Amino acid sequence: MRTGLWIPEYDTPELWHNEISRRSFFKYGVSSFLGLVAMQHFGTTGNAQLENVIPRAKRCIVMFMSGGPSQLDTFDPKDPSQKNSGPFMPIPTSVKGIQFSQHLPQVAEQAHHLSVIRSMVTREGNHERARYLLHTGYAPGGAVRHPTIGSLTSYYLDDDESHLPSCVNINSPTYSGGFLGASHDPFVVSNPMEKVEDIEYPAQMDTHRFRERLKMLKNLEQDFIAKRSGVKTETHQAIYKKADELINSPQIKAFELKEEPAEVREAYGMNRFGQGCLMARRLIESGVKFVEITLDGWDTHENNFERTKELLNVVDPAFATLVRELSERDLLDDTIVLWLGEFGRTPRINMNDGRDHHPNGWSAVIAGGGTRGGQVIGSTNEDGTKVVDHPIGVTDLFASLCFAMGIDYQEENMSRSGRPIRVVNDGLVIEELFV
User: Fold this and answer.
1) Per-residue confidence at 116, pLDDT binned at 50, 70, 90?
2) What is the spatial distance between Cα 283 and Cα 198, in angstroms, rounded to a whole number?
3) Which residues pair with 54 in a beta bridge?
């Protein structure tokens, strides 16, 4: 039987850590102990104000805008008199003095929950390189396959008692668990509006027959495992076991959006991104630790404004309803929500009425997980061409996500080659998010 994306790649590098002990440590640790750990580890980074902050986030949702959205046409609008501003008008939000694009009216109503970072900077202006960086915190290069932030969340916060995957990607596959192992690869939902593939037995199969086949497979593998025991073979068996548990678990209903009232589904938007955000809410309610929902189409070198308007009409109800429902269900305080893309787009409008790649001065938005809402962090100048206050790198953003979830971002894991790799390379926590 196929088990979807739970089957590991046979060349997946293994992890040399004792995974069980670490996962148990985070599973049974209480918030006060996490706070002590945070003070011990993060107090040495120069972020003295964070010493009394107790990490709250137990899970993470990322909305990834593939292609790179324009910051000027979303969360960093400029005065309409500026030649770079474009035709979109800024509108007020629920926070006095903060403005968003006119095509984000519902998100604007949730601004009191949001921290808008307007000073993101990166050196990566190439799509593939930037996408890797924004998923792993590392620039691509060399033989090391770095784990995604979702895989790191799965590794450190995984709940052994849950039958659901800890890390789920919706609408698009992403990078793997890297040297953390295939058991932390994301489970991919290709289209949330269709039946999720590979989470039930084929028509000719039932539980008894499948269990008998698993027994036969185990017998066939015994000699191989005896001679080649190790992380790879243990991971292979664990993935089959997890897939079997998933298929037979009542938790599988978290993937079934038909369980939701029609008005709720419509509030998110009857499209793949909107329904993906709804599925993300259902999944984290059921114990999933990390969900990423992708919305493609942001590479707007041509016809930027019409295309961005269409995309924002998809983003606005989904983003706003997700934040509102998490708040209403008392989940926002311990769920960190992140909206971002690979980079921004040039303030200058090109001859094709488009905007090109702009890695130096773009926007990301964070809500929940113990972060402060209703604020803007950093700024670009009047025409949006450069950062003039508080430049923030990708590693700083990743360090902040880890801090929010109680993960020591300075910890080192060993790659397959025995090379120590830090969870986050040289980042600092963004203090304004927490204090």
Assistant:
1) very high
2) 17
3) none
- Report, as an integer, the average pLDDT of 210-227: 74
Burial of 216 (0-12, 13-18, 19+ CB in 10 A): exposed
Using the predicted structure, report yes or no on whether residue 40 has a pLDDT greater than 50.
no
Burial-class residue 84 by CB neighbours within 10 Å (0-12, 13-18, 19+): middle
Q: What share of the chain is helix, strand, coil (3-state, %, to 5)?
A: 40, 15, 45
pTM, two decimals, is 0.85
In DSSP terms, which residues pair with 387 in a beta bridge?
Answer: 380
The tens digit of pLDDT for each residue in 306-331 reads: 999 999 999 999 999 999 999 999 99
Residue type, 101: S
Q: How far is residue 287 from each of residues 19, 28, 58, 160, 254, measured CA to CA in Å?
A: 19, 15, 10, 10, 10
CATH number at 229 reads 3.40.720
pLDDT in tens, 149-161: 999 999 999 887 7
pLDDT at 34: 46
8 A C-beta contact, residue 185 and residue 151: yes
**315: its two tokens:** 């983003």
The token duo for 72 is 């000027």
Answer whether 42's CB lies under 8 Å from 427's CB.
no
Q: Where are the beta strands (DSSP E) in 307-355?
A: 335-341, 344-345
In angstroms, the CA 113 to CA 324 distance is: 9
Number of domains in the chain: 1
Greatest pairwise CA separation for the chain in angstroms: 74
Query: Which domain, by its residues, includes 79?
Result: 4-433
DSSP state at residue 89: P
Amino acid found at 300: T
Separation between Cα atoms, residue 216 and residue 147, nearest integer Å: 33
H or E, element range at 290? strand 290-296
Identify the H or E element spanning 149. helix 149-157
Nearest to 213 by CA among 432, 434, 402, 3: 3
Pairing of strands 59-66, 335-341: parallel
pLDDT in tens, 242-283: 777 787 788 899 999 999 999 999 999 999 999 999 999 999
Please, are residues 433 and 366 in contact by the beta-carbon 8 Å criterion? yes
For 57-73, the pLDDT digits (tens) are 999 999 999 999 999 99
